[in-house]
Amino acid sequence: xxxxxxxxxxxxxxxxxxxxxxxxxxxxxxxxxxxxxxxxxxxxxxxxxxxxxxxxxxxxxxxxxxxxxxxxxxxxxxxxxxxxxxxxxxxxxxxxxxxxxxxxxxxxxxxxxxxxxxxxxxxxxxxxxxxxxxxxxxxxxxxxxxxxxxxxxxxxxxxxxxxxxxxxxxxxxxxxxxxxxxxxxxxxxxxxxxxxxxxxxxxxxxxxxxxxxxxxxxxxxxxxxxxxxxxxxxxxxxxxxxxx
Length: 244
Prior knowledge:
Blueprint: E1 5-6, E2 13-16, E3 21-25, E4 37-40, E5 46-49, E6 70-73, H1 79-82, E7 90-94, H2 98-102, H3 111-114, E8 123-124, E9 140-144, E10 149-151, E11 156-161, E12 170-174, E13 179-183, H4 200-211, E14 217-220, E15 226-227, H5 228-242
Helix pairs in contact: 4-5
């Protein structure tokens, strides 16, 4: 049976969290594959972290993203996180994956491996099709480095390089609110550790680094947000299971 088609106005949904953070996601994609897009409001400008599949225009259909001076950050360059990155004038990504974002083919971004009806509860409206899916590169790609501070005016987010899931994966840390945006290194669900550019040694080092932070709230790349206490449990369990 063919899947239902969903019109563009219904493709995205938003959910306001604490501390001026909004979750944007695509509810018609199954939870395991559904990317969390995070919008953070600052006094000087807002920030959006990750961009979803890109099969439906993101900024056109999500009011929070209408702001012109919006800092756009990719946690890494897998297709489910960078599909709409081209809608932002400059997209920031760690230097280790700058080349992928600048030329995002379906192989290196994993679209060839994962994109199929199995991902979806319903599909975007026609003319979308899996076979014609392509990611458009942003007009400008701006490399990020570990320790760099992203300044939103009244809010500062530190870039933490977290290789493992992918070589240029990052997390963002706001010490003032003890909030971690963790990307795909860790979330409260099955983690993916065996991709073409994954590395378990790097993964373990990144996990240990995040464990040292006094985290109160974690907003992951997939699945619901969770507490810093649960983060510690997840990391300890992962390290024990992998004997790393």
